[in-house]
């Protein structure tokens, strides 16, 4: 029986050619933490966490003692060991994301050991492709935030995207003007979602939603701060725009809060943060009992994208019917070399879809040259500002 023998972490960083911002802060670099877990028989797997990379790395090191020596086929047992080790002080937040990275790498190993893609191991592949939507339309210059708006929107249309998610959160008047402008560029046939990254109070979010109802908005993501479950529910009652959220939520217990409060029409767990594939599968089951759609949040490298592809391939259609709706993948289009260079294969949209990999595990290999290029050695000296990136 093979056992887990080693856990290595890598903090990867890439400085952007052009920074961009949204309602909360500015991005001038991409920084993520990935993990490689190796076994006694030489099998290894890759995982990724979503959150501040250096804190994630510390969390993975903290959890190491619960994982080394374990049988990777027993992923739920390992998950439970990690959960019990952190339960008293970290039922939400970065330590859960560290658990997620480890859990994902173990699924990759499990797939390789059993010679099956992760989607098959999750219970089977309902669909072998997903329909990506473009996440973009961030803001470029402080004094002219939507300067590159038109060129960007046209690029997405040329690539063949049928759905675009744009940022809002600059203030109601500017948001309404920007949505109106983008809708005029993309026409009525392209789905349009908005995301304020919880920039608004309840009253502001309600006012914005009412003013945007005429623009065929497919969902309003994170209108208010994620802890205000009841405000989400009230918004749902008062606007015809579907409400989405969950990228800041953790574990099935957190998602149960969103679901039982009737807070959202669509839940968006980030598999690299919410507890990994093991917990995301449970969250999806829970959502099915409330008839709520699941569209996972993604942001980091191509490892996280592969994880989401397998997860979506296994999502149950609720309700089932002959002509199933498209299952959406969040496909970030902002500058990110870690999405484009870190792994083989590079995930690309063709004819409006992305195929789900069918090779064992996650179906990826990390490019050693890219790993070397983007690895950021800390030498044990950590600046507090670096910790929070
Ligand atoms: Mg979002």
What topology emerges from the helices and strands here?
Elements: E1 4-21, E2 26-39, E3 44-49, H1 53-67, H2 75-86, H3 94-114, H4 118-121, E4 129-135, H5 149-159, E5 163-167, H6 172-186, E6 191-195, H7 202-212, E7 217-221, H8 229-238, E8 243-245, H9 251-260, E9 266-267, H10 276-290, E10 293-294, H11 302-313, E11 328-332, H12 337-340, E12 343-344, E13 354-355, E14 365-366, H13 368-374, H14 384-387
Helix pairs in contact: 1-3, 2-3, 3-10, 6-7, 7-8, 9-10
This protein binds magnesium ion (MG).
Listing every helix as H and every strand as E from the N terminus to the C terminus, the arrangement reads EEEHHHHEHEHEHEHEHEHEHEHEEEHH
The CATH topology name of the largest domain reads TIM Barrel
| CATH fourth-tier homologous superfamily of the largest domain | Enolase-like C-terminal domain
Number of helices: 14
CATH class of the largest domain: Alpha Beta
Net shape: globular
Could you say how many structural domains there are in total? 2
Task: List the bound ligands.
Answer: magnesium ion
Low-confidence blocks of residues: none
C-alpha Rg (nearest Å): 20 Å
- β-sheet strand percentage: 15-25%
CATH A-level architecture of the largest domain: Alpha-Beta Barrel
Report the count of strand segments.
Answer: 14
Helicity, in percent? 25-40%
Output the structural class. alpha/beta
């Amino acid at each position: 029986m093979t056992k887990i023998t080693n856990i290595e972490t890598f903090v990867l960083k890439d400085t952007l050619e052009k920074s961009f911002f949204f309602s909360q802060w500015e991005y001038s670099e991409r920084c993520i933490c990935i993990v490689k877990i190796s076994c006694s028989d030489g099998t290894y797997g890759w995982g990724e966490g979503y959150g501040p990379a250096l804190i994630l790395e510390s969390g993975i090191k903290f959890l190491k003692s619960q994982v080394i020596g374990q049988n990777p086929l027993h992923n739920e047992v390992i998950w439970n060991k990690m959960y019990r080790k952190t339960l008293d002080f970290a039922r939400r937040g970065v330590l859960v994301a560290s658990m997620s990275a480890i859990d994902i790498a173990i699924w990759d190993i499990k797939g390789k050991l059993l010679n099956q893609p992760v989607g098959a191991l999750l219970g089977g592949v309902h669909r072998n492709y997903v329909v990506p939507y473009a996440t973009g339309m961030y803001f470029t210059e402080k004094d002219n935030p939507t300067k590159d708006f038109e060129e960007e929107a046209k690029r997405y249309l040329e690539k063949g995207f049928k759905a675009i998610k744009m940022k809002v959160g600059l203030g109601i008047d500017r948001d309404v003007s920007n949505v109106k402008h983008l809708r005029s560029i993309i026409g009525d046939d392209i789905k349009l979602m908005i995301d304020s990254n919880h920039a608004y109070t309840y009253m502001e979010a309600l006012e914005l939603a009412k003013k945007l109802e005429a623009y065929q908005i497919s969902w309003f993501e994170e209108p208010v701060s994620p802890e205000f479950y009841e405000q989400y529910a009230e918004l749902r009652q008062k606007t015809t725009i579907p409400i989405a959220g969950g990228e800041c939520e953790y574990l099935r217990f957190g998602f149960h809060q969103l679901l039982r409060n009737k807070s959202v029409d669509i839940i968006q767990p980030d598999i690299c943060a919410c507890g990994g594939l093991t917990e995301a599968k449970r969250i999806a089951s829970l959502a099915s009992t409330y008839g709520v759609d699941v569209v996972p949040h993604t942001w980091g490298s191509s490892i996280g994208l592969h994880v989401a592809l397998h997860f979506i391939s296994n999502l149950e259609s609720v309700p089932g019917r002959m002509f199933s709706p498209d299952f959406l993948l969040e496909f970030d289009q902002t500058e990110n070399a870690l999405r484009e260079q870190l792994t083989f294969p590079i995930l690309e949209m063709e004819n409006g879809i992305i195929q789900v990999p069918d090779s064992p595990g996650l179906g990826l290999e990390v490019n050693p040259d890219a790993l070397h290029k983007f690895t950021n050695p800390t030498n044990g000296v950590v600046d507090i500002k670096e910790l929070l990136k």
